[in-house]
């Protein structure tokens, strides 16, 4: 099966590599020449634009782009996919964008005769490389089943979340909670240490008590792996800021209060403004270590 892939960045690059390893033929497009060259060295064929990719003989097109503006440009733009793609070609967008934009692009695709799935992921760059991503998928059941073998080459947990946009809803809700829980753990850990406790002992208590969560156990801001390597790598604070912004915007559209989410967004915004956007999001604990 020939697949088109657009967006070969930190996530898309290793995802495309796993599709090649699984034996799929890949035609690829990215604005970054080094990213394309890496994929070509792994066996992919290059094309010059989304429209050229659409005109190629592909059955499925997957995109993995930074944000909604790039997704809209690639799908709806003048030289975009929908201008040229054959009806029936399955479109899968794995970028993390707001549910409203995902539904807008899916509706345009449907009007053009193309089924579309939103399929954002969790698992980070490590999961992308290992082929162990979780895919949260929105769209029709029949299209989900068609996509499943492809997604299985890149992930191990593939969940149908409902109609168009619901994959993004799941992603936004999860990352809203993740951002809030990380700040909560940072606050509690900082208080305990300031009051005289050893961080490792306190983490051990929390992780066998009712305060335990992923942020305290796997990615603890004082004792976890990113902390041990100076908060380099991992899930960047700017990416968390982006996802909290998506949650806040999605909440505004349906007049749903996200009180702690708004505060979490502001804390990550302040942290990013201090030049920390590239640090793992557990580094937010530094806000509690000032003064
Ligand atoms: P990235 O910036 O590393 O990669 C994006 C790629 O898209 C780049 O290679 C860029 O050149 C390309 N691109 C941008 N505009 C383009 C266009 N118009 N046409 C073709 N190519 C274009 O980003 P990433 O880390 O791979 O993240 C991609 C998406 O996955 C984002 O929505 C992000 O929020 C989400 N995500 C990232 C992680 C992570 O840990 N990095 C985890 C889960 C989800």
UniProtKB/TrEMBL annotation:
* InterPro entries, per the entry: 3-OH-isobutyrate_DH-rel_CS, 6-PGluconate_DH-like_C_sf, 6PGD_dom2, 6PGDH_NADP-bd, HIBADH, HIBADH-like_NADP-bd, HIBADH-related, NAD(P)-bd_dom_sf
Q: Which UniProt keywords apply?
A: Branched-chain amino acid catabolism, NAD, Oxidoreductase
Q: Which GO terms describe its molecular function?
A: 3-hydroxyisobutyrate dehydrogenase activity; NAD binding; NADP binding
EC numbers on record: 1.1.1.31
Q: Domain of life of the organism in this record?
A: Bacteria
Q: 6-phosphogluconate dehydrogenase NADP-binding domain location, by residue?
A: 2-162
UniProt xrefs under PROSITE patterns: 3_HYDROXYISOBUT_DH (PS00895)
Q: Which residues form the active site?
A: 171
Q: Which residues form the 3-hydroxyisobutyrate dehydrogenase-like NAD-binding domain?
A: 165-288
Q: Which reaction does it catalyse?
A: 3-hydroxy-2-methylpropanoate + NAD(+) = 2-methyl-3-oxopropanoate + NADH + H(+)
Listed pathway(s) = Amino-acid degradation; L-valine degradation
Q: Which GO terms describe its biological process?
A: L-valine catabolic process
Is Oxidoreductase among the key words of this record?
yes
Q: Which family does it belong to?
A: Belongs to the HIBADH-related family.
What this protein is called in its record is 3-hydroxyisobutyrate dehydrogenase
């Amino acid at each position: 099966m020939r697949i088109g892939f657009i967006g070969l960045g930190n996530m898309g690059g290793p995802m495309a590599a796993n599709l090649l390893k699984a034996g799929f033929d890949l035609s690829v497009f990215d604005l970054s020449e080094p990213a394309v060259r890496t994929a070509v060295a792994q066996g992919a064929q290059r094309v010059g634009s989304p429209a050229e990719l659409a005109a190629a003989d592909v059955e499925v097109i997957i995109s993995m782009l930074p944000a909604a503006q790039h997704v809209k440009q690639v799908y709806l733009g003048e030289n975009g996919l929908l201008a040229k793609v054959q009806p029936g070609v399955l479109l899968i967008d794995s970028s993390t964008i707001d549910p409203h934009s995902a539904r807008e692009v899916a509706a345009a695709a449907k009007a053009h005769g193309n089924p579309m799935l939103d399929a954002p992921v969790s698992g980070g760059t490590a999961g992308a490389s290992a082929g162990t991503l979780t895919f949260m998928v929105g769209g029709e059941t029949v299209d989900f089943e068609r996509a499943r073998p492809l997604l299985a080459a890149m992930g191990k947990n593939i969940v149908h979340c409902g109609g168009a946009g619901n994959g993004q809803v799941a992603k936004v809700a999860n990352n809203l909670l993740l951002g809030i829980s990380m700040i909560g753990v940072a606050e509690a850990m900082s208080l305990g240490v300031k009051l005289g406790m050893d961080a490792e002992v306190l983490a051990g208590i929390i992780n066998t008590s009712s305060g335990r969560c992923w942020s305290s156990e796997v990615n603890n801001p004082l004792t976890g792996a990113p902390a041990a390597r100076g908060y380099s790598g991992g899930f960047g604070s700017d990416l968390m800021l982006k996802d909290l912004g998506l949650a806040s915007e999605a909440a505004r559209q349906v007049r749903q209060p996200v009180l702690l989410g708004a505060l979490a967004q502001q804390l990550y915004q302040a942290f990013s403004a201090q030049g920390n956007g590239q640090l793992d999001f557990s580094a937010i604990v530094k806000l509690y270590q000032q003064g």
